[in-house]
Amino acid sequence: xxxxxxxVSRRRVLKTGAAGLVASGVAPMVFTRGAWAQEFRxxxxxxxxxxxxxxxxxxxYADEGADELRAYTLAVKHLNGEGDGGMLNTMQPGSLNGNGxxxxxxxxxxxxxxxxxxxxxDSARRMIERDGALIITGGSSSGVAVAVQALCxxxxxIFMAGLTHSNDTTGKDKKRCGFRHFFNAYMSxxxxxxxxxxxxxxxxxxxxxxxxxxxxxxxxxSLINSTEAIGWQTTSAVRTPLGAGDFSxxxxxxxxxxxDVLILNxxxxxxxxxxxxxxQFGLKDRQAxxxxxxxxxxxxxxxxxxxxxxxxxxxxxxxxxxxxxxDAGSQAFVKSFGAEYGFPPSQAAHTCYVQALLYADACxxxxxxxxPEVIRALEGHLFDxxxxxxxxxxxxxHQCFKDVLVVRGNENPTSQFDLLEVxxxxxxxxxEYDASIFGGELGPYEVS
Amino acid sequence: xxxxxxxxxxxLDKGGxxxxxxxxxxxxxxxxxxxxxxHGAIFMIGSFVAVAFRQLLTLERVELSETELSPWGTALExxxxxxLEWFGDFGNVLIDYSVPIAVLLAIPVMYLLGVLMERxxxxxFYKRPHAEQILVTFGLAIVLGEVARTFFGANxxxxxxxxxxxxxxxxxxxFGMAEHAVTYPWWRLIYFVFSxxxxxxxxxxxRFTTFGLVVRAGMxxxxxxxxxxxxxxxxxxxxFGLAAVVAGIAGVMYTPLLPPTYSLGMxxxxxxxxxxxxxxMGSLPGAVAAGFLxxxxxxxxxxxxxxxxxxxxxxxxxYLVAVVILLVRPxxxxxxxxxxxx
Lengths: 448, 342
Known about the structure:
With 448 residues, chain A is α/β, with parallel strands linked by helices. Chain A has helices at residues 2-6, 10-39, 62-79, 117-129, 142-155, 185-200, 214-229, 248-255, 269-280, 302-308, 328-341, 347-366, 371-378, 428-431; strands at 48-55, 105-112, 135-138, 158-161, 178-180, 205-211, 233-240, 261-265, 287-288, 291-292, 294-299, 316-319, 382-383, 391-393, 400-401, 404-409, 420-426.
């Protein structure tokens, strides 16, 4: 009898094994939400959740940044159940009902990117470390987006990019924590090329003036590929220094180059200046190869178009979104924004507003603020009712795929805001591409 | 040949702007001995005088429509410019010619601004080292830029040129070339002529007036002029105002070529200093000659044929020339011996 008591019974082994299995396997599944609550950076434990809006408040894109901030402020109001709800009423599927995010009231802090990578990283880090921001979102430059996205990946914080158009943001520099709703240079090229062929024919000589930095290079490459695919030839691709101001010395060689299309891979102040000066040199009144010389601005923005004044009339380009769209989501946003501020939102405002709502929606669907789960909720998410038709956050590269707008500078504007006329809403299928062509690795969900 | 002619013209109008800014900068350095890094900001303020004037002319009476709604559901705003209501067609002419008219407005405004800057800030740094002068004037430039951004925003504000001079002149015909072989924007040609007129006026003022004589004497030997009982400080204050006027009206006339932004001054600042250094610190003819020289070189360096041989030369040509000239002739092209040579 005593020997039996000293030994290890089969029943005891089974009991201990079962208990071990429960402890090591089943219990974490049951208590996961509680466990996450202790484990990730800036987990909101109080009644509020803080979002970090990192936008250019000074520098060349300060006006665009101000519009982004207006949109974020409006998004926060709508998330907290104030105002008319905007796109909360139109987004499909929608899990947001105006009681904050997961029942917590939404608060926000802001940072100034200054459209400088180092300043943007500093302000993002400050919002994460000092202010407890759970996500970082916003910005008006690809360089800034790539830099802040990398920082957020290191810190395990989700980054919802603002206006960034370089292929690299969701290409070679993509990160698991980074998401881009805005379209990119490849999509601009793919959307524009068929319209250019229809408007200007397939036998054209293109001359590129390109801003000499990352975004300019990727746009030039994309536009050369897409226009050569429709039969155009590239006469020359000239790099211009960022912020050159006077582009006349780069425009004058175009006159004698034999090119009959000038493609301006410029944005912001550079776009305003190069376009204005190209028009002043009479490019649009001249002919080459027996055809009228045309000018194309692949990335248009209404805010920038205001700076170019009458010079944008008749110029073709592409844009992510325009306030004149008639779908229910766009109209709801324009109505909310216009009533709040007295003028329509820009494409930068639209993309930022949508990003804020998509993040909140993903948290609701994931049932947690835990970043890896929110990322999984965003990956491959299909939604509609937020402008641009049915949209998907592609899981492979975190790039949103949706319809792209080809626009033309309005010849007969009815108001100071009616600057761009939508020529075509190019369907998503036409601008889609294989995620692997731009390389890059998303990296891990969890960060140590 | 046509490509060379057009790049040459381009260099001339570019050089005109450089020369005008550098002229004011040189006047201030030559008289007051101050290295004024806020001079580019004065050019920028001048451009915003044109903007403000046009905004004043296009002030609108806003009425709310009783029947129509805006896209966001509020009453539609119907806007009518006061200038049209009050002056009819003449109001349209005023708006159309707002840039040339703003030149007249800018003269007193910029003069006052220059005097205020000199009396309020710069004079306290006359006897300080150049490094301190650079720091304080650079700080002032940043402040002026931010003030402009606060009032006018960060986006460029387009300033249309008068309708009569929009478009391009057929210059090639004058040189026996085919029609439309060489065309050049009218406004750029006007700017070149304008810069020549202003430069000529400044030189004539300094050369043929008693005031100019005293200033030139003061530039050579300030102490001796003071011993003669002449209040040279007051005259130098006026010179600072004059330099501000030159930069300011240059800024006004440049607005149709480059829509003004708050950062315009910084864009021109470094270039202007290179022009002054290449021309010779304190030398007025040097500033003008170097302005045109560097403008022309910059223009030719951007030619496709040149860049094919020296890739990227367009972005460094000005600094390359500056390095070479300073190595060969440290006082600059027209600099006086001993002035800023070390």
